[in-house]
Amino acid sequence: MKIDRFENSTNDRILENKIALNITINGRLYSLIVPPTYRLVDLLRKDLELTGTKTSCEIGRCGSCSVLMNGNVVNSCLVMAYQANGMVIETIEQVSQENLHPIQQAFLEEGALQCGYCTPGMIIALKSLLDKNNQPTEEEVLDYLCGNLCRCTGYNGILRAVQRYKNESSAIFDNKTLE
């Protein structure tokens, strides 16, 4: 890893012009020392090699760098690393561990991705919504996706994927209530 850790930093020059952070990323607590100009996306991609979080516009307009910070969607290109101190970050790598998350599966089944560059940010935004409301209206879905741009597939496949997710989660709920 390229990040200096607290416990390995005995040289005062290493700490000069650096910022100490304690941050939980994908369930793991990190104690890090980073440059003050580091953005959260830099920390994730360059140092922790969590490359599922993409960079594209780098000005917060495309959503490809979306992550969850304390459960809220943020553009990691706009968050300075020091602003994430003490926060809980969830990246696309955390969304599925053993199996795909149901919204990821629905994306595959509905052809809601093409190049895939925007997909991690879309999944993060939709996961945030679906964690709060697993039967959102189309208006709510569009509202949650307003910060995410897709230049390849458009949004019809994405909306179909959310509808599939809603139908399948509704069926699972109905089956559980019948048992």
TrEMBL record:
Transmembrane segments: none
Signal peptide, first to last residue: none
Pfam families membership: Fer2, Fer2_2
SUPFAM superfamilies recorded: 2Fe-2S ferredoxin-like (SSF54292), CO dehydrogenase ISP C-domain like (SSF47741)
The keyword Metal-binding is assigned to this record: yes
Keywords: 2Fe-2S, Iron, Iron-sulfur, Metal-binding, Oxidoreductase
InterPro entries: 2Fe-2S-bd, 2Fe-2S-bd_dom_sf, 2Fe-2S_ferredoxin-like_sf, 2Fe-2S_ferredoxin-type, 2Fe2S_fd_BS, Beta-grasp_dom_sf, Diverse_Oxidoreductases
Domain 2Fe-2S ferredoxin-type residue range list: 19-95
Protein known as: (2Fe-2S)-binding protein
Organism: Metabacillus rhizosphaerae
